Amino acid sequence: MAQKAEQVAEIGLLIYPGCQLAAIYGLTDLFRVAAEWTGDNARYIRVSHWEATADDVICIWDSHPGSPHRLSHAIAPPSIIMPERMAPAPAAAAWLRNQHDQGTVLCSVCAGAFVLAETGLIDGRRATTHWAFAEQLAKRFPSVRLAEEHMVLDEGDIVTAGGILAWADLGLTLVERLLGPATMLSTARFLLIDPPRGSQRPFAQFIPRFDHGDDAIRKAQHFIHAHAHEPVSMADLHDVAGMTERTLLRRFKAATHHRPNEYLQLVRIAKARELLERTLLPVDRIAWDVGYSDPAAFRKTFQKLVGIRPAEYRARFGTASVPHVEAG
Fold first, then answer.
1. What percent of the chain lies above the pLDDT cut of 70?
2. What's the distance, CA 254 to chain centroid?
3. Domain spans of the chain?
């Protein structure tokens, strides 16, 4: 006689206006697949879908109906609407707060962090979101301690995930927590996806801000971009901007959110990433071409900003191929 499978948890997936339905159904399938890989000790995760209306949140689907709900986890998925156009979701936020009060672990993926932040429960706490949305989240919810370099950030009762497809990373993280590492790895292999990734930094792009309204600082930025492959000094920058070094430092940080030297390194490393992706130039040559006379200093800076070494980055993201030489 087959052993009856044991329910280990119930995960509620929150459907709010504009959310990414691919994440809802993808997580549903991932947890269903995980149950197939629990071995002789058969276990499963109950999954329910909860839809937020204007003034309420109701269950609209249940993988194992027939018994009262007791959510161990609730997940706010990504949004397919850009954060600046996401409407407030007070009913969803109230529902999440109520679930948290009852002991539910709250999770978010990508822009789902904006819904989670509406609850006030991550004020003063670390959270991650998509690297491109971090500035917007910080403006709207300044009490949240952003840690956008993380792909998945587990704070115990709050778990946040970064990229728009990081629902897979979050799903596998929860499978590991609830069903064990062996089941998580088997699920990842079956679905042909990587185990949970630790960092967004290899994927994040440097996007310089030029629309800040400070013309003098914009001139300094333009100078850095034009001369990043050369030695650039503070004297060069305050001459171009027409201000003292102290004033330059203050206004540059206010306009770009970076100190001038940090900005210079970001510009150089962005160019190095492009060369690693698109060419087969040796790493030492790339270091020299983007402005580093010391390849060791380049490697150290690259790993600090990107999270992996240049050779690893090329192996993961390089698109150039070795030219085929026909036999003569």
1. 96
2. 24
3. 6-191, 215-317
